[in-house]
Write a structure and sequence with these properties.
Layout (H helix, E strand, L loop, with lengths): L2 H29 L8 H5 L10 E7 L2 E7 L6 E10 L2 E13 L2 E8 L5 E8 L3 E5 L8 E8 L2 E10 L2 E12 L3
């Protein structure tokens, strides 16, 4: 075999290897990380505005502890739950959802085995969420404010027998079980 034919074959082999390497690298780039197209629905969901609430939170005072846990947004909802413990006994629990209802975010609570109550958003910002159900007994409003990445102030408010009442729950981030 002549030297020029050998060089041509080596050149062709090098080109084929280079093309193969380019395709392999492109395949590797697209297989890493999430697919933005597949997440299109999730990123467009208004529920994502409350992603800062995801995680585990605790409120403690002498003889009382409230734990609240929120899953990150997914499928157009956030799912949460809470438990209040006084003197080593569970005194209240709630199953929670944040979802879209009639074009607005709604906070849906099912407290301690009771029927669910829906509170519609009246204010949503990058650090505050306020939900309201004027027809509900107490509370009529439920709110969360992000104070820092590891601190949230939750509160409930409304009228009880014509008297305005506010109950605050300053919460700090805690490890999830």
């Amino acid at each position: 075999m002549s030297r020029s034919r050998l060089l041509i074959k080596l050149l062709i082999a090098a080109v084929v290897l280079a093309i193969g390497a380019v395709f392999w690298l492109r395949r590797s780039d697209t297989s890493e990380g999430p697919d933005p197209a597949a997440e299109g629905e999730a990123t467009a969901s208004p529920v994502n505005e409350l992603a800062w609430l995801a995680g585990c939170w605790k409120h403690e005072e002498p003889g009382f502890r409230r734990d609240e846990q929120w899953m990150r947004p997914g499928g157009g909802t956030m799912i949460g739950m809470s438990r209040s413990v006084a003197e080593d006994r569970t005194v209240e629990h709630e199953y929670l959802r944040i979802e879209m209802r009639e074009g607005r975010l709604a906070y849906v609570a099912s407290p301690s085995g009771q029927g669910e109550a829906a509170f519609v958003s009246i204010e949503i910002t990058d650090r505050t969420a306020v939900f309201e159900a004027p027809e509900h007994d107490f509370p009529q409003r439920i709110a969360y404010e992000r104070m820092s990445p590891r601190s949230v102030l939750a509160w409930i408010e409304g009228d009880v027998d014509g008297v305005s009442r506010v109950v605050e729950f300053p919460m700090t981030a805690t490890s999830c079980p």
